[in-house]
Design brief:
Blueprint: H1 6-27, H2 34-44, H3 46-65, H4 71-108, E1 118-122, E2 128-131, H5 133-139, H6 143-150, H7 156-159, H8 164-180, E3 184-191, E4 197-208, E5 214-223, H9 225-247, E6 251-255, E7 261-264, H10 266-272, H11 286-290, H12 296-309, E8 313-320, E9 326-337, E10 343-352, H13 354-376, E11 380-384, E12 390-393, H14 395-401, H15 405-409, H16 417-420, H17 428-441, E13 445-452, E14 458-469, E15 475-484, H18 486-508, E16 512-516, E17 522-525, H19 527-532, H20 543-553, H21 556-572, E18 576-583, E19 589-600, E20 606-615, H22 617-672, H23 678-707, E21 714-716, H24 718-728, H25 730-735, E22 739-743, E23 751-753, H26 755-772, E24 782-789, E25 794-800, H27 827-837, E26 841-846, E27 852-859, H28 864-868
Parallel strand pairs: 22-24
Antiparallel strand pairs: 1-2, 1-5, 3-4, 4-5, 6-7, 6-10, 8-9, 9-10, 11-12, 11-15, 13-14, 14-15, 16-17, 16-20, 18-19, 19-20, 21-23, 24-25, 25-27, 26-27
């Protein structure tokens, strides 16, 4: 009989011990107590056995010495009983401690090779006893290296390979297990020989001797990396599923077996505007109230039926959305059952199918309109059976061919040739054969041919035929459509003719045309260029050979310059334009104007170079003759320029002399006054002297002009020249009651100018402005003088009047152009010459409020070219 349970074994030992004790008591024979000693020693260990021996000895003493036997008879029995107890206790203790336990432990101890996974064993103090080869191979160390690590402490032999983030917790658990003797269960990342970390579950138990002392630790590490990753993936999948449920465009809910809602997803809450707390009880809650009144009863009845019977729920109904609009919903629900078949949960989904319902209604309406559309669309539509028999022709086809629909659909097999009569005689056989092959092979057909219209004209049609197949792949109908492409065919024919014409034009135009790749290598030469270059044909010279051949035609004196210019254009992508000499087939060099432009794609990359060569030899020779004629004309016109110079000199002297006359007249009036205005007489006399000096300075400048003397320009403030010029015409302004307003920039820098010439320019502008306002009322008669520094570092002076304005502003600076009856037309022309000689510019324009404005601008620091040549013609 086998007793596998520990409890049963102990119960049996207690029972037998009690039986032995009772037997000893009733029989007055203490040998039965030996069973109690043996049971205690075997089941509870040597200490319990020793205690049982003492108790049995006391009981035996009572039995033997309290009985009827005498003391003489009882003493030998007592001594024998004690000896038996001691012998049995020693025998059981030795057998249990040495033979039984050690033999069982020796046979049960696994070898290093037999331990699955990463097996290991350690001494009671935690030092390594052995590690199986699988563990050594995994961490990539030898047995010798592992033995050296084991000598360090009780954990370095394994903690060296644990991930830094896990090593502290693992050491703490290992020390706790060694201290308490509790089994070790730990999960940590262990570094593999290749440096990667994998998750392991480390399990270890303590081996104990008969006294319960720990004799060693046996453990095994199992690779759970894939399990960890699977668990992480499962968690991520669960999170993704929840997010998907809350983001999927469907209304999802869950209910208990009794129909009480236990979950509704976020879209359902937003769609209905309800919360989960509002959904307790499907019949009386707000969801029922949200169902359209016409659908409420059927929805309630169907849902109640499903909850009572467990059958799936499926119904289309209208439900009010949060914004108050009723939408068509397709509701479905299924029961989740357990292993016993009982319903655990109800899962439902509601889809907004309003668009689908409306689309179906639209489809039905479209089907009605489709036939009308097919009959009115400007395309020939036709259907044939799988055997090739006519099945349907739209109204456009019937009207286009002029045949009756009944006649087209009544043809039998022997009458199919009647359809072929509509085809052009030149294409009848090929089209009929193509149709027969397509019907036989079941392949789509695309062909172009001419079909006779009802007026007898054959027109080009583009026909396409596609088979319609059922689920088994069998053809149930052929659908065909034909487009009238007669105009397109004619246009293509015209295009080909145009291309031929264009090619003929390119080959005959008296210009050499070359097409080059991005590297500058010619890929096409027109006929004209090949003839001029004495080549074999338009396509005979291409690539690097073509570049060499064309370079040989260039004049040796021009070849290097042309080569450098072309190289620069190819590198920068800039246009090429240059004149050079090129050899003709007869050996004569003629001037050629070469031009080339790059053609770029959308990314700015050069795709092609388009170039032309124009024979400009006659033009170059004509220009050379014109240049020689211009030189002769220039020498002849120098004499004529003396007259213009005389007028210029007269005009220059006229201004200071007029000022002298005006001041002399004013001097007479001040002297004739009663009493004489001596203070004004003095100022007027000074003005006369200054004007006379100005006339003398003009003469000096003219003499310096012809004697080629260098004028001395000085740094002066333009505002001072403006003030002096205004003082020179003070008398004129006083007589005419004219006011002058000044808007002068006080921070104006000193400018390098010829003071006399700039003063003459300002006086000329002031006199012209005064004369322009001679017909203006005195209260509106005023001038505005302004000066400023422009952003491009120039000093600008403007004279603004409010007269009649300029009739032709663009011509006022032309020589001999004047609007005055007695004017010579040289004043503003001379002013422009002076300003341009100073490196500036002069312009005039009409004001927006009337009048005109004439201004000039000169650089604050003129360029070296202007400074080196100050005596420009005046």
């Amino acid at each position: 009989m086998q007793v596998d349970s520990l409890i049963k074994r102990r119960a049996l030992a207690v029972l037998l011990s009690a039986f032995g004790a009772l037997t000893a008591w009733y029989s007055a024979e203490p040998s039965g107590l030996l069973i109690f000693v043996v049971a205690a020693s075997v089941c509870a260990g040597w200490k319990a056995g020793l205690a049982a021996g003492v108790v049995s000895t006391l009981l035996a003493w009572n039995i033997l010495f309290d009985g009827s036997d005498g003391v003489a008879e009882a003493e030998p029995k007592m001594i024998g009983f004690v000896v038996c107890v001691i012998c049995l206790w020693l025998l059981v203790h030795i057998y249990r401690s040495v033979v039984f336990f050690d033999q069982i432990y020796a046979t049960a101890q696994p070898s290093m090779e037999d331990i699955p996974g990463l097996g290991w064993s350690a001494y009671p103090d935690g030092r390594m006893r052995f590690v199986n080869p699988a563990a050594l191979s995994f961490v990539g160390v030898s047995a010798t290296e592992m033995s050296e690590l084991a000598q360090l402490d009780n954990h370095s032999w394994w903690s060296r390979f644990v991930h830094p983030d896990d090593v502290d917790d693992s050491i703490r658990r290992w020390l706790h297990s060694m201290k308490t003797g509790e089994p070790l269960i730990d999960e940590q990342r262990v570094r593999r020989a290749d440096g990667t970390y994998r998750w392991f579950r480390d399990s270890a138990i303590a081996s104990r001797d008969a006294e319960g002392r720990i004799t060693g630790w046996y453990g095994m590490a199992v690779d759970i990396d894939d399990q960890r990753k699977a668990e992480a993936a499962l968690q991520a999948s669960e999170q993704q599923l929840r997010e998907m449920i809350d983001t999927v465009p469907a209304l999802i809910w869950r209910a208990n077996p009794d129909g009480t809602a236990s979950y509704i997803n976020k879209p359902l809450m937003e769609w209905t505007g309800l919360r989960l707390a509002d959904t307790d009880g499907w019949q009386e809650n707000a969801i029922l109230k949200a169902i359209h009144p016409d659908d409420r009863c059927s929805w309630q009845r169907a849902l109640r039926h499903s909850f009572e019977t467990g059958e799936p729920f499926a119904l289309r109904y209208r439900q009010r959305r949060a914004d108050g609009a009723y939408r068509w919903m397709d509701g479905k629900a299924e029961a989740l059952r357990g292993a016993d078949g009982k319903i655990i949960q109800w899962y439902g989904v509601c889809l907004d199918v309003t668009d689908e319902v409306e689309a179906m209604e639209t489809v039905r309406q479209s089907e009605r309109e489709l036939r009308l559309l097919v009959d009115t669309v400007p395309t020939l539509i036709w259907l044939i059976t799988p055997e090739g028999m006519p099945y349907y022709f739209n109204k456009r086809f019937v009207d286009w061919t002029g045949a009756r629909a009944a006649d087209l659909l009544s043809y039998q097999d022997e009458q199919l040739e009647a359809h072929e009569d509509l085809l052009h005689p030149d294409e009848k056989a090929s089209v009929a054969q193509a149709f027969r092959e397509a019907l036989k092979a079941g392949q789509p057909l695309h062909l172009k041919g001419r079909l006779r219209r009802k007026d007898g004209e054959y027109r080009w049609l583009d026909s396409r035929v596609e088979p319609l197949r059922d689920e088994s792949g069998n053809i149930i109908r052929w659908y065909g459509v034909s487009f009238d492409i007669d105009e397109e065919v004619r246009a293509q024919t015209a295009l080909r003719e145009s291309q031929n014409y264009l090619q003929h034009l390119i080959d005959t135009v008296p210009v050499g045309i070359v097409l080059s790749n991005p590297a500058g290598e010619p890929v096409y030469l027109n006929k004209r260029l090949t003839e001029l270059a004495a080549l074999d044909g338009p396509g005979s010279i291409t690539g690097r050979l073509g570049v060499h051949a064309l370079n040989e035609l260039i004049h040796p004196d021009d070849r290097e310059e042309v080569h450098q210019r072309l190289k620069h254009c190819l590198q920068t992508g800039s246009s090429f334009a240059m004149r050079y000499r090129q050899r003709r087939p007869d050996g004569e060099y003629r001037w050629i104007e070469g031009r080339s432009e790059p053609f770029q794609n959308g990314n700015g990359e050069i795709v092609q170079w388009y170039g032309v060569n124009l024979d400009v030899d006659d033009e170059v020779r004509a220009q050379e003759g014109l240049r020689l004629a211009d030189e002769r004309l220039s020498r002849a016109s120098q004499a004529a320029s003396l007259a213009e110079l005389s007028i210029s000199i007269a005009h220059q002297l006229n201004q200071p002399l007029q000022a002298v006359v005006s001041n002399a007249s004013a001097l007479q009036r001040w002297l004739a006054a009663k009493p004489p205005a001596l203070d004004r007489v003095g100022r007027t006399a000074a003005s006369i002297m200054r004007d006379a000096a100005a006339a003398a300075e003009v003469v000096t400048r003219i003499r310096a002009l012809f004697s080629n003397n260098v004028n001395q320009r000085r740094l002066v403030n333009i505002n001072e020249i403006i003030r002096e010029a205004c003082d020179l015409i003070t008398d004129r302004t006083h007589i005419g009651t004219l006011r002058i307003e000044f808007d002068l920039d006080t921070t104006l820098p000193a400018t390098l100018v010829d003071r006399v010439q700039i003063e003459q320019v300002i006086i000329n502008l002031l006199r012209n402005a005064i004369e322009a306002m001679k017909d203006v009322e005195p209260r509106f008669r005023y001038l505005r003088m302004s000066s400023r520094v422009t952003p491009n570092e120039m000093v600008e002076v403007a004279v603004r009047d409010f007269g009649s304005g300029l009739s032709e502003p663009e011509r006022i600076f032309e020589p001999f152009y004047t609007t005055k009856p007695d004017g010579m037309g040289m004043g503003l022309a001379i002013c422009r010459t002076i300003i341009e000689a100073h490196g500036g510019h002069l312009r005039g324009e009409n004001g927006s409020a009337g009048g005109a404005s004439v201004s000039f601008a000169i650089p604050i620091r003129p360029t070296s070219s202007v400074i080196e040549h100050p005596n420009l013609p005046v």
